[in-house]
Amino acid sequence: MDFFLSPAFVRYELYVIWFCLCFIGVYGAYEIGSWLRNFSNLLYPKSRIVSGHIHIETAKASNKASTDMVEPIVEPDFQAVDDSVPNVLTPERRAEISELGKLVRTKIARGDLSEARSKIIEGLAIDKWNKELNSLLASLYERDNEYRKAELIYKDLILVHDTDPEIYMKLGFSLSIQGKFEIAYEIYKKLLDLSDSHIEAAEMLANIAHELGRHDKAIEYSKLFLKSYPRNVDMLTVLSASLIANGQKEEALDTLAKLKNLDPYNPRVREMKEKLELELELSRKFEAGVKENPDVSEK
């Protein structure tokens, strides 16, 4: 008992208490500093974006004038997006956006995708409808197979850039890869209306129409595409299959003959051609037999 009351032990206890007080003081200072940093991020959202302290999950950053805050939007409703006219930017701001676009492309090429995303959001805080930055963000989502998010970005862009063929093409691809063929079909039709020279739209329309069983349209669009690329094996195959499905077997046989000359070792083409030739031969024999013996057809 005398030991606990001795001057040495009391001095040791004072050291422990002093150490605890120092620890409490340091920890309290750290917590206060963290609170001040968080408060600063709320007041100055742009600095938060640049420092990379946030992770944005979609294409747009809301820049409401009342709050001046950048908020992440998780898959916004396409119909609910504000389609107001983009703000007019000063030449300095346009130059800044242009440089950000170049920087983002460089970072994507180098594989620094997280930093590229951060720079994109920084640019969108200045101009949320910027076509290049939004398209680059959509491409990052497509890299991760998040085509639904890419689709939403392209839909948002169309509200402002409603006559831009490039956006329609990208949206159509995003829809197609998700299996949304009906909507993709309408998008590509709109694209073809906007730009007759956009022959890739005819190619996609032919493929989608064949997939949907719209063989008349598949024939129409495949022939349109083949006017520009008459030796395209894939489109000749789509045309052949659509002609057969549509009952135009003689024309399909002519198309398959062209296809075989272009791709003589393709087993599918050879099989289709042989099967169709056999069907036509049997059909001719049946018709000839009916003419010789009309009573057979009556029975």
Instruction: Please give the radius of gyration in angstroms.
Output: 33 Å
Strand content: under 5%
What is the mean predicted local confidence, pLDDT?
A: 79
CATH class of the largest domain: Mainly Alpha
* Helical content class: over 70%
Task: List the SSEs and their pairings.
Blueprint: H1 7-43, H2 45-51, E1 61-62, E2 71-72, H3 91-110, H4 113-124, H5 131-143, H6 147-160, H7 165-177, H8 181-194, H9 199-211, H10 215-228, H11 233-245, H12 249-262, H13 267-292, H14 294-298
Antiparallel strand pairs: 1-2
Helix pairs in contact: 1-2, 2-4, 3-4, 3-5, 4-5, 5-6, 6-7, 7-8, 8-9, 9-10, 9-11, 10-11, 11-12, 12-13
Offer a few descriptive terms.
299 residues; mainly alpha; Serine Threonine Protein Phosphatase 5, Tetratricopeptide repeat; 3 domains; two-stranded antiparallel ribbon; 14 helices; 2 strands
